[in-house]
Amino acid sequence: MIATTFFGLESILANELTAIGATKVEPINRAVSFEGNKSTMYKANYLCYTAIRILKPIASFTCADENELYDQLLKIEWWNYMDVDQTLAIHAVVSNSVITHSKFAALKSKDAVVDAFRNKYGRRPNVDIDNPDLQINIHIFRENCSVSLDSSGSSLHKRGYRGQVDKAPLNEVLAAGLVKLSEWNGQTDLIDPMCGSGTLLIEAAMQAYGIPAGFYRKDFGFKHWNDFDKDLWEEICKEALLNQKDFNHQIIGIDHSFKAISIAKENLISARFHKDIELRHTSFEELPTPFKNGTLITNPPYGDRLEESDIIGLYKMIGDQLKTKYAGFKAWVLSGNLDALKFVGLRPSKKIIVFNGPIECRFAKFEVYEGSQKFSKSDQNPDRKK
Ligand SMILES: C[S@@+](CC[C@H](N)C(=O)[O-])C[C@H]1O[C@@H](n2cnc3c(N)ncnc32)[C@H](O)[C@@H]1O
Questions:
Q1: Is residue 31 part of a domain?
Q2: What are the C-alpha distances in Å from 211 to residues 165, 179, 180, 216?
Q3: 234 lies in the same domain as 361
Q4: How far is the CA of 353 from the centre of ligand 1 (A)?
Q5: Is pTM beyond 0.90 here?
Q6: Phi, psi (5° rounding) for residue 281?
Q7: Which atom of ligand 1 is nearest to the CA of 298?
Q8: What's the gap in Å between 218 CA and the centre of ligand 1?
Q9: Which residues line ligand 1 (CB under 6 A)?
Q10: What residue numbers bound the domain in which 233 lies?
Q11: How far apart are alpha carbons 103 and 141 in whole angstroms?
């Protein structure tokens, strides 16, 4: 199978897949390939925080053009995967091929699937783009085509807890990946001082309490498949609940926008974390240090909006706060504004490349040591190794 993810999260997802019992786990570009049975597939959908989709390959072939694509897809016995009365949707990704448009490839593929049914039954299944019973994934690279069934249905970032969002919300899968990249393991207090809609807070809490990634979701693609094993699925859900953990630290979210805090509150209620995560409507600069030796993870504005005119000032302020109030903390900042990030004025001990949508970002770690001397030395001497 193939589990897709964000650039930069491949090895994190590989670890998650290994932990649920997947074998032959291999990170590839923005995805991880692995082997497993039906139970592994259900678990990958339900338990892996950093998976976007779990694809189950059913055929692969070479195709020089759209006619060959049609002919090959017509040969597949689609009735093994869906009934003629069920609905389908096709998602195609095309690169370096004579078939240049993914929408055209999807259309041609849809014709082949419905014609295969028509030839056999004299009737054809309908297409339902939004809520299909069977989501088919066509991946064409040069002359190689692989056909997969999308066992997730809608993307797994749609966890089901987020209603409204404020400006520039993080994708839930990316937020979960950042928490994992930060190596926060629930053994310290955690703060996001620019929490927006609260995505990082909720994803961190889910991991800390052992709440499955798919806990709030109502549906998965595999539930509509002919071979859906309800008993196995219920067993997996029951077992996952036994793995819930106690969490004895604080998670706090801050934002200076009243609207952001109101939306974050709604999302916390929806995820049932409103009693576990504290929200405060204030600015980062006005916040007294909330606890000692904690972890800070945040995603400040990148300066691409009109109201964010003094972006350099904002990043300087973040650095000043870290230096003066957050000694003993591990602080992680995700930013797509690489110039502004330099104005934090601390040397990052790690910088990880991740993509927030199309924006290439750095997830930078700043370790602020107890005693101002330590950080100020490294700060003044750029050659000093940490
Ligand atoms: C990119 S958004 C964060 C999105 C968030 N990670 C999410 O997933 O919804 C940046 C947030 O920083 C907040 N912010 C900007 N300057 C701030 C400051 N000085 N103090 C506190 N919050 C601030 C904004 O109100 C905005 O909600």
A1: yes
A2: 22, 14, 15, 9
A3: yes
A4: 21
A5: yes
A6: -90, 95
A7: 6
A8: 29
A9: 166-170, 193-197, 199-200, 254-257, 260, 283-285, 299-301
A10: 172-211+218-380
A11: 15
